[in-house]
Please model this.
Amino acid sequence: MLSAEVEIPIRFSEVDSLRIVWHGHYIQYFEDAREAFGAKYNFRYLEVYGKGYVMPIVKISCEYKRPLKYGDTAIVKADYIPTEAAKVIFKYEIRSKASQELLATGESMQVFLDSDMNLMLTVPEYIQQWKKQHGL
Model:
């Protein structure tokens, strides 16, 4: 399985008056993990865009298990989930760096649009080559 991790120190600006991370930031942490994945596996958004495609998110979910707090450091992992369909799926885990406790899980789905913003119903050739390169 292809995966990447990113370490995120929780900043004061990310917490609410209860000193816990506002729920919307978890989605940003998932994005940070996708960016780390892109850097690790040569699957950056700008590279895909340069080939004539965009990959908007069409579905995203997050299950909150335990809160992140100001001063914590989160480890966010993104696992690429192979599929034959013309989409990209990631599963996520957010853990505490200190305790390794599972704090949240999630999933996202992205589709491919061409340069005219038309939905691609088949996997673009560029992505098929990327998959072969990584044994998928």
